[in-house]
Amino acid sequence: MSNEINQYKQDHQFPQVSASDDEIDLRELFSVIWQGKWLIIAITFIFAVASVVFAINQPNIYKSEALLAPADSEQGGGGLAALAGQFGGLASMAGINLGAGGVDKTQMAIEVMKSRQFTSNFIQKHNILPDLMAAKKWNMADNSISYDDEIYNSVESKWLREVKLPYKSEPSMQEAYKVFSKIIAINAAKDTGMVTVSVEHLSPTVAHQWVNWLVQDINKEMKDRDVAEATRSTIFLKSQIQQTKIADIRSILYKLIEEQAKTIMFAEVRDEYVFKTIDPALIPEEKSKPKRALICVLGTMLGGMLGVMFVLIRYFVRKEN
């Protein structure tokens, strides 16, 4: 039987594959790398120099941040809850909703700060569009900002951008929102409820000022919203009082008007309406980025790997030919 198998193999001439044919000779690879060491060193050197030049030309970015705590929002909430428990059934019969539930005011304030409308109003109110879209360099000596001459003429306050339609020379609020959302960060800690607001900019003074403005504006925005809502509610409740003769319903309506008056009073006497400042923003003395040393190290490593790959690929291509 074995003789027949051997005869069959000889007749069909099966090639005998050696295990060494499928294996890569490490000594050969090291030899190829060693022969191309000068090319690898040259490529690595080029990448190292390029990464150093790139890192040096990157402007410093400064980060200013403030730590905030949600302010106590007991104005009206507790009163409405008590009214709901006491007169909820009677108020429902009269078509009045005393539900005290709703969206958390702190979370709503965070979402408002991230919204397009608030950002657009913020940019226009404080006239920060040039500092946001055209700033090129911060001059430490006189604490001034240099603008890109191809984008903005600071002397004439004129935009010089060359863009295609539908864009215009002056950046739109949609463009400004995209840029602004990249340099601002608003984070809420789930365990403590603390909120951190931070801004990154070429100028540490600008970053510090914008954080302060953001905190002030969001407190004012939420205050104005609650005051406007309480005022409208008061007008509506007074009209309902004139239309009903039921003593219990009129009592509920008067108590509701009282709660709205408390809301307005609470808003008027507190500047920190939604957020209390725990740790105010400071003018940063040290940059937050770029990490120039890391850029140089990564650039050099990338050059070395590309050099080794180039030498190996060149060797195997020549070997195939």
Automatic annotation (TrEMBL):
It comes from the Bacteria. Keywords: Cell membrane, Membrane, Transmembrane, Transmembrane helix. Its main location: membrane. Pfam families: GNVR (PF13807), Wzz (PF02706). GO terms for molecular function: protein tyrosine kinase activity. InterPro entries: Bact_polysacc_biosynth/exp, GNVR, LPS_length_determ_N. It is a multi-pass membrane protein. It is found in: Cell membrane. Residues 22-125 form the Polysaccharide chain length determinant N-terminal domain. The keyword rRNA-binding does not apply. One of its GO terms (cellular component) is plasma membrane. PANTHER family: FERRIC ENTEROBACTIN TRANSPORT PROTEIN FEPE (PTHR32309:SF13), TYROSINE-PROTEIN KINASE (PTHR32309). This is LPS O-antigen length regulator. The lineage of its organism: Bacteria, Pseudomonadati, Pseudomonadota, Gammaproteobacteria, Alteromonadales.
